[in-house]
Design brief:
Rossmann fold; 4 strands; about 40% helix
Length: about 120
């Protein structure tokens, strides 16, 4: 069973997410490397939308799409961005072809980190 569909697993992860070693440093580096003229960002494995939220805090005029397959994480992300017309949260399983969501100036992901934590 994939643990990311288990609400208890997601809750435990979200409760410890801010304590992941070097996470904030990595997020700071990500912001430093975003193009100055970024207009559209894709977040693969968006989870609760943490990276999108950080990016939008840094560049508020960005249009963003977050992809995830976990119903629990999708609910968190949709709740976080409810009413934000610049953010689209899309259900997508990375084991399948990506949905047609357009083109992007930047693609971000913390998927590898989350995947290692699921073990």
């Amino acid at each position: 069973m994939n643990k990311w569909i288990d609400p208890d697993h997601v809750r435990r992860y979200l409760n410890r997410a801010d304590r992941i070693p070097h996470r904030k440093e990595g997020e700071r580096v990500l912001l430093e490397h975003l193009p100055d003229t970024v207009n559209r960002v894709l977040d693969i494995g968006t989870g609760d939308g943490r990276l999108l939220s950080i990016i939008l805090g840094h560049k508020s005029n960005v249009d963003a799409v977050g992809l995830d397959f976990s119903p629990v994480m999708l609910q968190h992300a949709r709740s976080q961005f409810a009413g934000n017309k610049n953010v689209q949260i899309v259900e997508a399983n990375l084991d399948q072809s990506l949905p047609k969501v357009g083109t992007f100036d930047a693609i971000v992901s913390s998927f590898a980190i989350c995947r290692n934590l699921a073990k």
